[in-house]
Protein: HTH-type transcriptional regulator TnrA
Amino acid sequence: MTAHLQEDHYKYKKVISIGVVSELTGLSQRQIRYYEERKLVFPDRSKGTRKYSFADVEQLMKIANQREEGVSTWEIRQEMTKELRERMLKGQMNAHFRRRS
Structure:
């Protein structure tokens, strides 16, 4: 693991409660659960407790900003799907060309 990835690793640990996420983002717990229902954020769940990462907090803040600009949750989801496909394709291409070198 590179130093950069090690530094950012904490961002992806699902350790933050919904109450703390609400305080950090300014979103209500109801809004956060709604964005989960719309498949815009994916907390870990155990025994009815949701746990979020710092990356989830960043994603929720991005969603909130887009919603303030009038972007629908459907449009946000479409953009997330497009970005994921592009990252996957880029990863596949990188893997393919590394093997040929």
Q: What stands out?
A: The mean pLDDT is 89. The CA atoms of residues 27 and 57 lie 10 Å apart. The chain is about 65% helix and 10% strand.
